[in-house]
Design goal:
Blueprint (H helix, E strand, L loop, with lengths): L15 E5 L5 H16 L3 H13 L1 E5 L14 H4 L3 H13 L6 H13 L3 H14 L4 H13 L3 H14 L4 H13 L3 H14 L4 H13 L3 H14 L3 H13 L3 H14 L4 H13 L3 H7 L2 H4 L1 E4 L9 H14 L2 E2 L2 E5 L9 H18 L8 H4 L5 E13 L12 E8 L14 E5 L13 E5 L5 E6 L3 E4 L2 E16 L2
Antiparallel strand pairs: 1-2, 3-10, 4-5, 6-12, 7-10, 7-12, 8-9, 8-11
Helix pairs in contact: 1-2, 1-4, 2-5, 4-5, 5-6, 5-7, 6-7, 7-8, 8-9, 9-10, 9-11, 10-11, 11-12, 11-13, 12-13, 13-14, 13-15, 14-15, 15-16
Length: 492
């Protein structure tokens, strides 16, 4: 495959997240961790390694971008679930391997374990050590690529992925991982080559097909993109494959086909945010204006509410001040210093109180609709949900693209602190803007986009379906604009 000089300015850094694999038996995982701890007590390193290998194999570890920015989109935070026991076992096991000069595979395992508990510096150090111990261990280079990706080292990540591919030329999944990262770096032509190499080795690899679909679309090869997307859906009809195919269909101007596929996606998952987001534009593009407009019903589904301070706070101002203090003191995402990690994991303090408040606000949101008002969004009402949320700390915002949250069903934002120039007077700087009929193809006109803007106020909550496109309008200030974004993920 051809190599191309890489500009790091093209790379958008990412945070990573550890999630359960579908169907994981959490009780079994607890027993595996206990088994590893017991083996370490008996100095039985082999049994500890066996248990921890099985434990690691039950988890997925990938960029937050694959979950559209939500650290807890699909499961409980792993390191917190085990109440510190996982951290203790990882630390103990790593000490048993320090003296083993040729234990490359064990060092890779330790690196993976440190990733699970969020100790990325240790994970990177152990991955480097594994590669030095055995330069021909492909898994070592793959793990070093993951830790390098975490630390925003794109050239090194690509180098490690290529080395892993060279060492195991028969592994379709390694070629997929290379293509996936090249795609993140906007190196779509090289990504296409990598995805095609994966498909040579495994023609039914749906992930490689929808990855190929995405890069081909961005290269303007929309017909080829549609073809790859159709094959992906045929092999594995799910929200991921439908997402990529429908996006390609819209880019190709095939709006009738996009509508058909949106309905198929919604039959599969009636709470598929992407299908609703795409369907609105596709209907509009085929002349079904009111039908498209009704899906993104800003007038009824977009709600603005004011909250009262929770018990224990003398005023809303004092409550907001408590939120701001925690937000400013909290660790930020590794690659995005403007956003914190999930703050709703707290078992006490202002964010624990805020989570309780927001849960009540959601019930008020649903109760606010009259009994005679019907909408597809409301017909899929959440009965139980998880909530994740983070603080965004900004002094400026450049041009931001409209986006939606593809993993959640209901989303919102709360304004805890605003600089003096935001939300006041006639300016829209720093406001939140919602977009209806986002253009996807060259034939779509930006002038047809319909916008709704909400001026933020301290103490204001804005709630909306997660499929509503939105963004923060540009602003520049000397003081912080601190908002708390949150997503509600249905539990079934």
């Amino acid at each position: 495959m051809k190599k191309k000089p890489f500009s790091s300015s093209e790379y958008q850094a990412e945070d990573w997240v550890s999630l359960w694999k579908p169907g994981s038996d959490k009780k079994k995982l607890i027993k595996l961790l206990q088994k590893a701890a017991l083996a370490l007590d008996k100095a039985d390193k082999n049994q500890a390694e066996k248990a921890l290998l099985e434990f690691v194999g039950a988890h997925q570890y990938f960029p937050v971008s694959k979950t559209d920015g939500a650290p807890l989109a699909y499961g409980t935070n792993i390191k917190d679930f085990f109440n510190g026991e996982l951290n203790r076992v990882v630390e103990r096991f790593s000490r048993t391997v320090v003296s083993e000069a040729k234990a490359a595979e064990k060092k890779v395992l330790i690196s993976k374990l440190f990733c699970l508990i969020g100790k990325y510096q240790d994970a990177d150090r152990w991955a480097e050590n594994a590669v030095k111990t055995d330069p021909d261990l492909a898994e070592g280079h793959l793990q070093l690529a993951k830790t390098s990706r975490i630390y925003s080292l794109p050239e090194k990540t690509i180098e490690c992925l290529r080395k892993a591919v060279d060492l195991t030329s028969d592994r379709a999944d390694y070629f997929y991982l290379l293509g996936d990262f090249l795609q993140v770096c906007n190196l779509d032509q090289e990504a296409v080559e990598a995805f095609n190499e994966a498909l040579v080795r495994r023609p039914d690899y749906s992930k490689a097909l929808y990855g190929l679909c995405w890069s081909l679309r961005r290269l303007g090869r929309v017909e080829e993109a549609v073809h790859a997307g159709e094959k992906a859906v045929q092999l594995a009809p799910n929200s991921h494959t439908f997402f990529h195919l429908i996006y390609a269909l819209l880019a190709a101007g095939k709006n009738d086909a996009a509508i058909k596929r949106c309905h198929e996606a919604l039959e599969l998952n009636p709470m598929d945010p992407a299908a609703f987001a795409f369907l609105s534009t596709a209907l509009y593009e085929t002349g079904q204006y009111e039908e498209g407009r009704s899906i993104c019903d800003f007038e009824n589904l977009l709600k603005v509410m004011n909250i009262s301070p929770p018990p224990g706070y003398s005023s809303l101002a004092s409550f907001n001040q408590s939120l701001v203090e925690v937000a400013l003191a909290s660790p930020t995402r590794i690659m995005d210093p403007t956003q914190t990690n999930n703050l709703f994991l707290s078992s006490s303090g202002p964010f624990y109180d805020f989570k309780d408040t927001i849960n009540r606000v959601v019930k008020m949101y649903y109760d606010s609709f009259p009994s005679n008002f019907s909408h597809p969004f409301l017909s899929q009402k959440m009965e139980n949900w998880q909530i994740d949320g983070w603080a965004t700390r900004l002094k400026k915002m450049d041009e931001q693209e409209h986006h939606f949250h593809n993993h959640a069903w209901l989303s919102g934002v709360y304004y805890a602190k605003l600089p003096g120039g935001i939300g006041r007077g006639g300016t829209e700087e720093g406001c939140i803007e919602f977009c209806r009929f986002r253009p996807y193809s060259a034939s779509c006109s930006e002038s047809e986009v319909e916008l709704a803007t909400i001026r933020p106020e301290e103490g204001l909550v804005v709630l909306f379906p997660s499929y509503f496109y939105h963004r923060i309008l540009p602003f520049n200030d000397n003081d912080y604009r601190i908002s708390i974004a949150f997503n509600f993920i249905p539990e079934f």
